Backbone:
């Protein structure tokens, strides 16, 4: 990709598509600042390059965690492309507004997406995630099940079960077992849900199998940290390591990684729900060290929410 993009630019140094291709190259190489520079070059030569706006927004989502930049750039992409890509743009806008804590505004974009696609399963699944981040976990599962009955490819993700009471343990185990089979069949690394499989197995007494998945989570997290991939750059690897070690009873390592997580730009509203309800942290939830980190997360997320709210109001989007 990079060779061909550079070759194209040797013939035409103002070719927007070539700069966009270079931006995607750097994106996939986890060189996010370089990616944004290339997308900005693409937009310099073609201010209506909706793909450049889209990928710039995705880059901010993956690395910099800047809600405003994501919403702004994806919105500009949606304004410039009313074709087949528009539903996916609307879906991303809805998803990110959910993660930023603007649930009602997210519903608007999901409804606009539905008007174009008439995909009832996707519509229900999107609303299920709204319920998750509103901490209405049982209603979230009900919606996800309805979506799955309409479209079997809408497999219920592990997170829908993680926060539910013990009466759901057997059901959660069957769901986790299904996901474990999918990952084994495809060979895809389960970077951030192996510990969710682990807790589902643990809750039904399959402790040996559970330990395998907890260890797998640790292995994947440590590898992403070693190779400086995108997963740790928004705090995910540190959070998952801390959660896994907390469940396994290793408080020293749990707090080691929680402290690292606390240093990250963890300012998205969904982190509040995660850290507040995550059962993996139940063993240390009442401790002052944990409470202090939880309060810091909530404070940063609330500040970011207010910053985004002000920006949305200024542009008449709320």
Residues:
């Amino acid at each position: 990709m990079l060779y061909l993009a550079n070759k194209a630019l040797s013939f035409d140094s103002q070719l927007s598509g070539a700069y966009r291709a270079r931006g995607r190259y750097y994106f996939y190489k986890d060189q996010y600042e370089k990616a944004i520079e290339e997308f900005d070059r693409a937009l310099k030569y073609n201010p209506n390059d909706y793909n450049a706006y889209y990928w710039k927004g995705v880059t901010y989502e993956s690395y910099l965690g800047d809600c405003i930049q994501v919403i702004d750039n994806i919105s500009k992409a949606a304004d410039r492309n009313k074709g087949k890509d528009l539903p996916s743009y609307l879906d991303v806008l809805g998803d990110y507004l959910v993660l930023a804590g603007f649930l009602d505004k997210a519903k608007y974009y999901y409804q606009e997406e539905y008007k174009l696609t008439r995909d009832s399963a996707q519509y229900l699944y999107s609303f299920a995630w709204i319920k998750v981040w509103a901490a209405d976990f049982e209603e979230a599962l009900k919606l996800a099940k309805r979506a799955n009955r309409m479209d079997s490819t809408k497999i219920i993700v592990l997170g829908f079960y993680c926060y539910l009471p013990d009466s759901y343990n057997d059901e959660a185990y069957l769901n986790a077992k299904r996901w474990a089979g999918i990952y084994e069949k495809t060979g895809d690394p389960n970077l951030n849900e192996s510990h969710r499989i682990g807790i589902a197995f643990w809750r039904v007494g399959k402790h040996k199998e559970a330990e395998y998945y907890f260890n797998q989570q640790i292995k994947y997290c440590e590898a992403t940290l070693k190779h400086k991939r995108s997963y740790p750059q928004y705090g995910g690897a540190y959070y998952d390591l801390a959660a896994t070690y907390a469940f396994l009873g290793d408080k020293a390592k749990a707090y080691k990684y929680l402290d690292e997580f606390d240093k990250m730009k963890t300012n998205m509203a969904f982190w509040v729900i995660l850290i507040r309800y995550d059962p993996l942290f139940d063993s240390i939830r009442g401790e002052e060290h944990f409470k202090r980190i939880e309060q810091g997360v909530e404070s940063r997320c609330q500040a970011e929410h207010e910053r985004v709210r002000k920006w949305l109001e200024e542009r008449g989007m709320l």
Q: What stands out?
A: The longest helix spans residues 288-314. The chain has a mean pLDDT of 92.
